[in-house]
Fold this protein.
Amino acid sequence: MEDCNMMEVDTKGNRFTWMIMREGEGLIRECLDRVVVNAVWKTQFQSGLCCVLQAIGSDHTPLLLDLEPKESVTPKSLGFDERWLMHPKLEEIVKAQWERFMKGVVV
């Protein structure tokens, strides 16, 4: 990374991006996945932030590169509002978003 003048983007969330449960060894967690950029990118997106999301269906956690973070959002601050269930197009919206999300998932 130094030879190429690359730097890691500031990360928010869990510091471990990979985990596995091995018999006899217990839970093993490592930081394997990172977002690296060059100085030009860092100058253009000074507030850029890498958010470590929750792993779903994989031993790697997805990383979200937020170029312009507006406010501090942590999993603890997110909640479920039952009024969402009243939305007339809820099923249609969820189905469309799920299909969009699954297009990028490799199983």
Observations:
- The mean pLDDT is 82.
- Residues 63 and 103 are 16 Å apart (CA to CA).
- The first helix runs from residue 39 to 44.
